[in-house]
Amino acid sequence: MVCSHRLGNQWPTNWHHASVKRQEQIGEWTIYYSQIELPEGTLNLQDNERVRSGGITEVLRRWAWAGSSELENLTLSVRVQIEMDQARPFLPGISYYDNPAGQTVNPDVIPVIGTEQGGKGFYEEHRYPMPFAAVEGKQNNNYVSAALHSLPSALLHGDKVDQWWSLGLERLSSSQVELALLSGPVASNGKNGIIKGKQKKWFDYPDATLTLPPGAIVEKTYYVQSSTRTKRG
Question: What's the burial of 186, exposed, middle or buried (CB within 10 Å: 0-12/13-18/19+)?
Answer without folding.
Answer: buried
